[in-house]
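Subject — a protein and its fold
Fields — amino acid sequence, structure tokens
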Amino acid sequence: MTSLKDRIRQAKDIPHQDDVEIPEWAPGAMFRVCGLPSKDWEEYQNQQARIRLDTGKAGGEMTLRSNKAEIVAKALYDQDTDSLVFPDLREGVAILSKKSGGIVNGLFNLVRHLSGDDKTFEQKVKEAEGNSAGDQN
């Protein structure tokens, strides 16, 4: 019998969406967009929450860092080869940062959805309850 730890380790629980077409970038190519593992998503949220006080300005200025291009670079795969489009994250961020904000934002929102970050805690609990009732094999 497999231990619970091994069952968790082996579970394929990160959703993805195939057949994502971005004709502005690569007409006819199909991309796979994947949700991010907990570590990557939490890292992004922590980066977003970091506040930097710029003391060089009168009264100081607080800024939030948001890097949607980084999230998209970590989640965008070539569907045919199942490989990251941007294996070099820095290069991917540099490229995506210069692309259409609308496209990058749309992909970011898809990653956010696939990562389960667009649902309230109550919605997640209801979904979990619905998935566990009588589904044991």
